[in-house]
Amino acid sequence: MSTTKQLQRSLGLRLVIVVVIGNIIGSGVYKKVAPMANELHSSGWILICWVLGGIITLFGALSNAEVAGLLADTGGEYSYYKKIYNRFFAFIFGWSLFTVIQTASISSLAYVFAQSLSSIVNLPPLLPDLAQVNIAEVFYPFADLNVKVTAIILILLLTWLNTKGIKTGANVSTGILVLVFTGILTIVLFGISSNAANLVQPFQLSTTTGQAVTVSSVFTAMLSAFWAYQGWAAIGYVGGEVKDANRTIPRGIAIGVLLIITIYLLVNATYLSVLSIPELTQIHQAGNQIAAVEAVRSFWGSKGAVFISVLILVTTLGCTNATILASCRTYFAMAREGLFFKNVANLNKENTPANSLWYQCVWACMLVLSGSFDQLTDMIIFAVFIYYGATTLGVFILRRKMPDAHRPYRVWGYPIVPAVMILFCAVLVLNTFFIRPREAAIGLILMLTGVPLYWYFTRRQTQKIQELNN
Q1: pLDDT band at residue 196, thresholds of 50, 70 and 90?
Q2: Distance of CA 200 to the CA centre of its chain
Q3: Which parts pass through the membrane (predicted)?
Q4: Whether residue 452 has a cis bond before it, omega within 30° of 0
């Protein structure tokens, strides 16, 4: 294996769109309507939050697309931040991807895959007597151990698959997405046709508790929506493997996000037409149920529950695969610059950063053992919106730093669209600190562990330079 071999540009627009959508559609489209119902107690406000989440995501995607079109390279925001800010900020971002954002995404998706598999084949319990063993009453590593072990096995298998080359991983995602779209469209058509009399139910703004919806509850509910939209920026991590990246990446991001917004509105309106808010709240409080499974069970019975469980298996399999495929490229780019562990810079004979994949795999498996699904996803959204805001701010900075540079795409609605995105990111991060302080604190601590490591890596680089000079 060599550190001088180069990544191959093999992804065109179709596969770019596949990677964008494949990184987004995962567990959120099936699971997150229940915690939103528990927070808002209003079907109409749930749909409003999905729309707002989609608009903000699109604003972020359009802003990101301008930066990506100008600076496209392997590593995504890591490469952008070096030019927008400095190496330190770029490193902290890359380290945050490794410790929180992308590895926890892989863990969360694999966890839901394992939950769905358990509902179909009834996985036998593992070490049930240790289920209450905990660390500071926050982490319960042995709780639902059968589900967690299954999730770990999935991460290991998909990591191995992606060491065989990027086109192999991307083509697997293409096949999976065809099945996913077919399944979701089937749910929407049958759900709406079997409950035509209840089509007004999803648009009722009144709450079942009689209490008004607050701004804070809207932002808290949107944490769930944003988990479902999370992942669109991952295409930037494979920028060095995209044909005509400066044009293809912006187009792929915009097309992918617009398709996702449409799908999410249709499928969540279907859930809300067949399940009441109290039913969705009960599903959330049960802890081990998935809203989509119960919705389909309501109009198809037990066979429908099996169908949707299989669909969730396929969807989370695809999203886990796409996330594993894209994420490891950032750590590879960092290692090539001496800012990550040395052997992560190696490519295998398929020109794939295999060592980076395995480092990512090990930490993702540890995160599976660390927490629950909702704990992981709230931690991810807190962390990722710090960097969404930073990338969007980069639109303004780069227009000052590089006013005459060729931009294949300029963000629509400038400067209002990026300004709204930055403001929203700031409010969401602050709200999460107050509403989910534990998840925000854990995420922040993991991100800040990168500070001493940056010192270590840069000190090692300095020593090497001194040795060469001597």
Answers
A1: low
A2: 31
A3: 12-30, 42-62, 88-114, 138-160, 172-192, 212-240, 252-272, 305-326, 357-373, 379-399, 411-434, 440-457
A4: no
- Per the rule left: phi > 0, alpha: psi between -120 and 50, beta: everything else, 203 is alpha
Q: Which amino acid is at 323?
A: T
| Residue 8 burial (10 A CB sphere; 0-12, 13-18, 19+) | middle
Q: Please tell me the distance from the alpha carbon of residue 303 to that of residue 306, in angstroms, as a whole number.
A: 5
Domain boundaries, the chain: 13-377+433-462
Q: State residue 14's pLDDT score.
A: 76
Q: How far apart are CA 60 and CA 329, in angstroms?
A: 22
Using CA atoms, how far apart are residues 364 and 87, in angstroms rounded to an integer?
25
Q: Report d(CA 274, CA 196) in Å as an integer.
A: 10
The yes-or-no verdict on residue 200 having pLDDT over 70 is no
Q: CA nearest 257: which of 108, 63, 406?
A: 63
Distance CA(11)–CA(14), nearest Å, equals 8
Map residue 433 onto helix, strand or coil: helix
Identity of residue 449: T
**What distance in Å separates the CA atoms of residue 277 and residue 298, rounded to the nearest whole number?**
14
- Give the model's pLDDT for residue 358: 92
Q: What is the CA radius of gyration of the chain?
A: 22
Name the burial class of residue 425, with classes exposed (0-12), middle (13-18) and buried (19+) by CB atoms within 10 angstroms of its CB.
buried
CA distance 133 to 419: 46
pLDDT for residue 7: 45
DSSP string, 213-282: PPHHHHHHHHHHHHHHHTTGGGGGGBGGGBTTHHHHHHHHHHHHHHHHHHHHHHHHHHHHHHS-HHHHHH
- Please say whether the dihedral angle defined by the alpha carbons of residues 464, 465, 469 and 470, taken in this order, is positive or negative: negative
